[in-house]
């Protein structure tokens, strides 16, 4: 439990996400100057007993879905002009470990939703789950740099120019156009 709390670095558990989403939407709808916000969620460093649809991972994911639905509904007056990005700093291994959990992995997923997002599909390259396609034969391969997702949000949605993007992502050159927006 102490390790989990240290890994969270003060981030609230996912159970707080619905209420935090409601508060954030109220702030953003009520104040046009608030154009960028972050919510952090802790409790994801689960290596033991993740379980299936009724396990601890499912119990953590459910409030994420509820919180995102709450956020979308509460942002309704401005949702058409909103982009929401859900991301993590680490993935999980594909296979279960000996403790009925998963360990830190390589590849990950990002969710992008909002009024201007061309949703309903998976963007990026999907190599599959065959062992020969996995990174070190155990993890999803990284096929899309996270900056490839964030750059169009900053450039096209927030209208941040290339010189400023170079300061945000120094030394990074975009190699693909995902067509998210």
Q: Could you tell me the strand content as a percent range?
A: 5-15%
Mean pLDDT: 89
Structural class, by secondary structure, is mainly alpha
Which bin fits the share of residues in helices? 25-40%
Q: From the alpha-carbon coordinates, what is the Rg to the nearest angstrom? A: 18 Å
- Low-confidence sequence ranges: none
Global shape: globular
Strand count, sense and barrel status of the largest sheet are: 2 strands, antiparallel
**Count of domain modules:** 2
Within the largest sheet, what's the order of strands? 1-4
Number of strands: 4
CA-CA gap between termini: 41 Å
Number of helices: 5
This entry's quaternary arrangement is single chain
**H/E order of the elements?**
HHHEEEEHH
Question: What distinguishing features does this structure have?
Answer:
4 strands, two-stranded antiparallel sheet, 181 residues, 5 helices
Can you describe this structure in just a few lines?
The chain has 181 residues and is mainly alpha-helical. The protein folds into two domains: 1-81, no CATH class; 111-181, no CATH class. 33% of the residues lie in helices and 7% in strands.
């Amino acid at each position: 439990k102490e390790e989990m709390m240290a890994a969270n670095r003060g981030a609230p558990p996912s159970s707080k996400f619905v209420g935090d989403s409601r508060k954030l939407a109220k702030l953003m709808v009520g104040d046009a100057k608030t154009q960028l916000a972050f919510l952090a969620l802790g409790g994801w460093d689960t290596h033991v007993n993740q379980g299936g649809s009724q396990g601890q991972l499912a119990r953590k994911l459910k409030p994420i879905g509820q919180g995102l639905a709450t956020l979308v509904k509460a942002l309704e007056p401005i949702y058409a002009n909103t982009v929401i990005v859900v991301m993590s700093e680490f993935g999980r291994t594909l296979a279960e470990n000996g403790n009925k959990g998963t360990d830190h992995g390589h590849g990950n997923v990002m969710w992008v939703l909002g009024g201007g997002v061309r949703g309903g599909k998976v963007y990026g390259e999907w190599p599959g789950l065959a062992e020969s396609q996995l990174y070190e034969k155990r993890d999803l391969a990284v096929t899309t740099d996270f900056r490839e997702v964030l750059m169009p949000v900053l450039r096209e949605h927030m209208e941040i120019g290339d010189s400023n993007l170079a300061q945000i992502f120094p030394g990074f050159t975009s190699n693909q156009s995902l067509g998210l927006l």
